[in-house]
Design goal:
The protein has ten helices and 13 strands. Strand 6 and strand 7 form a beta hairpin. Helix 1 crosses helix 9 and helix 9 packs antiparallel against helix 10.
Length: 306
């Protein structure tokens, strides 16, 4: 893809996920499929699928799982040149537990094994490598989420460095992605931190359940009152989304498609919306593109689209 195309850089944790081949309690499952996961990495893959030149800045272990993750990025035409290899810390992973729902869809529950991972050692120094600094200097947009600052003190410092850096016209996108387990015992600190990131972002995404948990309201107009700073503010639910571009508000409905499992659909939705912004679509057009790409994540138990 030509270097003159807009460049989106996604910063955050990559994980290996193990997905059972059948929906059953983990103690009864013998076979799993291996897949790439991690909110920002899922978004990067979906952005690349939408024709956006995309790169990831992150860290993985010097192990087979780390090599699998970087090879998956390359397979999806995502630049992995700024993914640092940690010689000591392992690549994080999680196991998904699947349970059937009465409507025929599948409920997914994640069990994480990421403590002390390479990605948890993200720090401001991560951005000083020649590859990372070059990508960030070229970026039209940088996307990250509320997962990164919850991983460790150094990862939070990395997130702060992204928000503190001069933007020079670069857009900063932030997805709240509230993970209470990662903030256990410091929930108020987490809510304050994520609120600050939303206020400082150019584009902010939040599910309505997360908004209720973090900001005390899920009403889109009230959220806009609380957070007037981002140009774009998007509140999502399984039924659809409400998006603001300044004072303009647009409501949209989700596309009617069969749902296998919903994990990862929010990352794909964010990618579709960002792709719309980067290619000059209207607010309505960006939402339509977001819904189209999100449907592709709903059709499998993988977290990312293929």
């Amino acid at each position: 893809m030509p270097d003159t195309y807009p460049l989106a850089v996604c910063v955050g944790e990559g994980l290996v996920s193990f997905v059972p081949v059948t929906a059953a309690p983990l103690e009864d499952v013998r076979t799993f499929h291996r897949s790439l996961a991690g909110a920002e990495w899922n978004t990067a893959i979906a952005l690349a699928s939408a024709g956006i030149r995309t790169a990831v800045v992150s860290r993985v272990g010097d192990d087979g799982f780390g090599r699998f993750l970087t090879s998956e990025l390359r397979r999806h035409e995502v630049d992995d040149s700024a993914v640092d290899i940690d010689a000591e810390a392992p690549t994080g992973l999680y196991v998904k537990e699947l349970s059937p729902r009465p409507d025929g869809s599948i409920d997914g529950r994640m069990h994480y094994y990421r403590s002390g991972s390479a990605a948890a050692a993200l720090s401001p120094a991560t951005f000083e490598s020649p590859a990372a600094s070059a990508l960030l200097a070229q970026a039209t947009l940088v996307h990250t989420s509320g997962i990164t600052p919850a991983l460790s003190d150094s990862a939070r410092a990395a997130q702060d460095a992204l928000f503190d850096a001069p933007r020079d016209g670069r857009l900063l996108s932030f997805d709240v992605n509230w993970r209470p387990a990662l903030w256990r015992g410091r929930e108020d600190e987490g809510r304050a931190a994520l609120s600050d990131y939303v206020r400082r972002a150019d584009i902010a995404f939040c599910t309505r359940p997360d908004a209720e948990s973090v900001f005390g309201t899920s009403e889109p107009d009230r959220l806009r009152e609380l957070f007037p700073e981002p140009r774009y503010l998007i509140a999502t639910s399984p039924d659809g989304a409400v998006a603001f571009d300044g004072a303009e508000r647009t409501d949209s409905r989700s596309l009617d498609v069969p749902v296998v499992e919903s994990i990862g659909a929010g990352d794909a939705f964010a990618a579709g919306f960002l792709a719309g912004v980067l290619t000059g679509l209207s607010l309505t057009g960006s939402l339509a593109r977001a819904h189209r790409i999100a449907t592709r994540a709903l059709l499998s138990t993988r977290d990312h689209i293929d």
